């Protein structure tokens, strides 16, 4: 069961250029393309004639032509031409989906189009923001999206799974974060004093240890925007464990990540990472390149573990799993998603049931 009335990340905006792009989101095949005015359209990737995929068709202006028998569809999904046939029946159409391009992502709404509220798009940071040097990418997982969500909601694994990539200290496995419930997600904040300088800022920070503060919102259906800061030793005590205010960090970086379910057994992971241009004298294009190389190494480590976990679960459905203290954030996020799904189903049932 998936949440439908929400915005899913379908692609980075730079992936939608002159051609047709196939995506599958929550078991729905889509074809995306950029129209002549620069906006993006999304149609069901299935011709209504013989179910041929439109994504292997041909883009013609603002329309897509199926290259099996030549039916042509505009951006609303309406068929405007059937070769050899003068009349186009009204039912000759495919579904179209609301699309918004925002913060360098292409967002698609899979639910009721009347409820496609742009205000429900989780806030992120676009690649064109002048304060950041962004690098980005995506990874396909052979695993259910919830397993990837869980991974990002519990950073106690950083010390064990990523010693050579991120190079975080053992305190990540011992210091529990502060978790707050949000309307459509959770907020996770953590102070870690006197930490080994992480690998991505070694060489640009003149200290072997720093105080680290991280904070991120994780919002439905699976979008994380995290700010990470390093401070001189002693900053934690200065702010008594609360979010630092009016003090310049040594380093500041932001990462925007989104997990999009492809189907029940697969998902796509979109990620970006950027150092702040103004927080570090050594901030440069090279630093951004080095950071994304570290991230790709770490995310590959995640992929190997999560796909192994998925294979175990495939052969052991509904296993007994013992919760631990660090499961707080992921448990709360699952509760939020389940509530949104139940509310959506209840509303749909109310509409479907005659008085």
Task: Describe this entry's structure for a reader.
The protein is α+β, with helices and mostly antiparallel strands and 355 residues long. The protein folds into 2 domains: 7-120, Rieske [2Fe-2S] iron-sulphur domain (Rieske Iron-sulfur Protein); 135-336, Naphthalene 1,2-dioxygenase Alpha Subunit, Chain A, domain 1. It is built from 5 helices and 18 strands. The strands form 4 sheets. It has a 7-stranded antiparallel beta sheet, with helices on one face. Helix 1 packs across helix 5 (328-352). The chain is globular, with a radius of gyration of 23 Å. The two termini are 27 Å apart. The model has no long low-confidence stretch (mean pLDDT 94).
Number of strands: 18
Domains, number: 2
How are the strands of the biggest sheet laid out side by side?
12-18-17-16-15-14-13
Distance between the termini: 27 Å
Q: Please give the share of residues in helix.
A: 10-25%
CATH class of the largest domain: Alpha Beta
The CATH architecture of the largest domain would be: Alpha-Beta Complex
Largest sheet descriptor: 7 strands, antiparallel
Strand content: 25-35%
Low-confidence regions: none
H/E element order: EEEEEEEEEEEEHHEEEEHEEHH
Globular, elongated, flat, extended or rod-shaped: what is the shape? Answer: globular
Total DSSP helices: 5
